[in-house]
Specification:
By secondary structure, the protein is mainly beta. 7% of the residues lie in helices and 51% in strands. The chain is built from one helix and two strands. A hairpin with a 4-residue loop joins strand 1 and strand 2. It starts with 7 loop residues before the first strand and ends with a helix.
């Protein structure tokens, strides 16, 4: 799923599953640990698109009030 836009949040809940297995062969026993990550829930919360955007990069703390006025 492609989600594009401003003011959006995606939440995912994963389940980590692990299992120890033994593989029996005629001449050997092979022990392995198998693990996998499964997505249980995925939710996109879409917020409102703001009507304005301020780029405050490089401004000092004392100048923030002047940018709002």
């Amino acid at each position: 799923m492609k989600v594009r836009g401003i003011n959006q949040t995606i939440h995912r809940l994963y389940l980590d599953v692990g299992c120890d297995v033994s593989i029996l062969t005629p001449y050997n026993i092979i022990e392995e640990n198998i693990s996998n990550e499964i997505v249980l829930i995925e939710n996109v919360i879409v917020g409102l698109v703001p009507s304005t955007y301020y780029n405050l990069e490089g401004m000092e703390k004392s100048n923030f009030v002047d940018a709002i006025k």
